[in-house]
Design a protein that fits this description.
The chain has 70 residues and is mainly α. The chain has helices at residues 2-18, 22-48, 51-67.
């Protein structure tokens, strides 16, 4: 069992050495991605009930862009 733990430790250290900023940075970035996804899903869930209003606003933006030739 001791040799298995030693081998696993070497593999984990080997992977950690290849990460540009270490394990902590990897987990921080994964956490940020999960947080961004949760925020996106929350806003999408709120906005989903107001779809007709969102489409109307989008059409207003398109009309404005066309009127200003942008």
């Amino acid at each position: 069992m001791a040799s298995y733990n030693g081998g696993m430790h070497r593999r984990v250290s080997s992977v950690g050495a290849r990460l540009p900023h270490g394990w902590g940075d990897l987990f921080r970035q994964i956490g940020l991605i999960v947080f961004a996804d949760l925020c996106y899903e929350t806003v999408r869930g709120i906005a989903d009930g107001e779809r007709a209003e969102a489409i109307a606003h989008g059409q207003q933006v398109i009309d404005f862009e066309r009127s200003t030739h942008t």
